[in-house]
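Side project, low priority. Logging it here so it doesn't get lost.
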Amino acid sequence: MVPTVEEYTTLLRCPRIQVDKVYSRAANVLTFTKKLTRIIGMSEQWVTARIKQKGENRCIPWRSLRDQILAHPDTKKKVDVFALNMYGLVIFPKALGHIDKAVTDLFDQLERRVTPVPAILAETFRSLSACRRTGEGRFVGCAQLLLVWFHSHF
């Protein structure tokens, strides 16, 4: 048994999102720095100073973003930064303690009301397949969502 798009859509409670628009990476998109600048509402210099290289991924430490949740004067930006943190730490926890470029790409699409379900499901399959293929490893995906799915079927 495997999760389906419909099941994950129900579990994530996102039926109002346009299901006919599926998240995919566009060829001509804003840079990681510019997306973070727009989402967070801080200057490009502030964002650039905090970006780190973790392996092959460019990331920003979630602690820098946590500080913005507490200190940002704009309530909408506080909520956006909090949501970006949750997506990075729970849905796509690739770089422990950091938010990577893939998370900002997905978050950017959410503002356009594009469903994240296929991307989350694909990440679940990719990670489970990698763990199975190697016979070990760490599941990199939304473990909580997968656990809820397991409980709904067994």
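Brief comment: The radius of gyration is 16 Å.
Revisit when time allows.
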